[in-house]
# Entry
Amino acid sequence: MPTPIKKIVIAGGGTAGWMAAALIKKVLHQTVDVELVESEEVGIIGVGEATIPPLQIFNQFLGIDEKEFLSATKATIKLAIKFENWRVPGESYYHTFGAPGANMGFCDFQHHWLHAKQVGMQSSLWDFDLNYLCCNHNKFNKIKAQNPIHNLPYAYHFDSALYGKLLRKIAGNSGVIRTEGFIDEVKIAPKTGFIQALRLRSGEEISGDLFIDCTGIKALLIQKALKVGYEHWDHWLPANSAIVVPTERFENTLPYTRSIAHPAGWQWRIPLAHRNGNGFVYSSKYINDDDAHDVLMNNLDSKALEQPKKISFNTGRTIKQWHKNVVSIGLSSGFLEPLESTSIHLIQSGIIRLLKVFPNDGISEAVVDLYNTESKEEFETVRDFIILHYHVNQRNDSDFWRDMRNMDIPARLQQKIDVFKQSANIHNDNNDIFRDASWLQVMLGQGIMPQDYHPAAKVFNNEELINTLNKISQTKQQLLEPMLSHDDFLKRYTT
Ligand SMILES: Cc1cc2nc3c(=O)[nH]c(=O)nc-3n(C[C@H](O)[C@H](O)[C@H](O)COP(=O)(O)OP(=O)(O)OC[C@H]3O[C@@H](n4cnc5c(N)ncnc54)[C@H](O)[C@@H]3O)c2cc1C
# Structure
């Protein structure tokens, strides 16, 4: 007989642990008890600083006031990522959270844009994207859009340690029990293979019906205890290290993340309200740690506030994200480099997926399989999106970029590229976090120019087409003009 789930134990109190604790208790309030165990001695990884827009929904669901959130986590607005030197050194493009253009009938905007280019229009796709225009002018305002053409989707850059503190307070207020202690042993029931209890160094045992492994890269429950196994993806994504360092904040806070490619990796710059986050991601196969350290330290544009710290990781995913009575969420479930700032989002979607199929009466194979299938697909589509940035490059300055260009890629990604190249169409996978506009921007930005566009785009004659595109562009320019600078917005909104 399956055991009804009355008590959930969360192992680990990083971003994953506290996000899980706060949302699960909020949704299941009276139905389950939630206890979180964490060890201050171990600490958290604490480097997740850039997010994608759905975090707003997560915060709203927890009842977090946005102004309070921005102040408490020293957050800034993120409208896009600017990719510099990725296709070739000296060039850049943006992956914005917006959608270029507007709905123009049967086929997507890019088909009309390609048609217009063919008849001599000079504007880039991004000239029709409000997010891009705001990035370019360092402006932002919250827009309540009735019409999708007015949409300005945004996310945040924030201090994840401060976000953890905020969530801890919210979770505590709703009844989550926090236990400080070092997990020494994971006790497994010999008959079922289910986890029974976590034994702390103090001797205390914490038992539960369902365990959530949020112990980060250590993966104490899902890997160390249950030995589920790990699928490595370093043949596609060879980066296995990052050097990180905070620096003094800039005077003008940019509303986007910078991702700057170097001959053997890439560097991020993330503007927060009180400092900047910086890191260099690289593969030890192509550059040694000392040289990687120099790449980072020679490419900072403000003073370092601490000594740089190295973090090692294994790109891939745990073969089953849910096994027996353990669900792994956060870094324990896998690692994808932070190129598209997806880890915190994968935490959010892992928690929501669990809540949607929550096995109130007890765990069944059918539910576990469903959870695992969806998680696998989601991880793989993010992986493919990241590979796209590396693979479609035209850099010739290092073995790293040549190898990335010449490697075999997953079949589904190859198909997406081929379809786009031929027809400008983008095929969406169900569990893909990134929709058409994201794939479009990165494929074009990395240098794939479609050979053709949809015949339905010829519905407009040349004059109608140019007039329509001009109107779209003017509408977006008009929205931009009254906006505040990003810094003025933050100041006015949060004080
Ligand atoms: C270089 C780098 C850059 C990143 N940038 C981004 C980004 O920009 N955006 C993004 O979304 N994500 C990013 N991430 C990922 C992000 O940092 C993580 O997804 C996020 O912090 C969640 O981590 P976690 O909670 O799973 O693990 P952790 O923060 O490592 O937390 C693990 C928890 O487990 C506890 N624990 C471990 N062992 C024990 C034990 N024996 N006993 C008791 N407790 C224990 C620890 O105390 C801690 O509370 C980045 C990651 C790296 C490595």
Remarks:
- The longest helix spans residues 365-391.
- Residues 12-17, 37-39, 42-45, 47-51, 160, 182-183, 214-216, 218, 220, 242, 244, 279, 311, 313, 330-331, 338, 341, 343-344 surround flavin-adenine dinucleotide (CB under 6 Å).
- The longest strand covers residues 241-247.
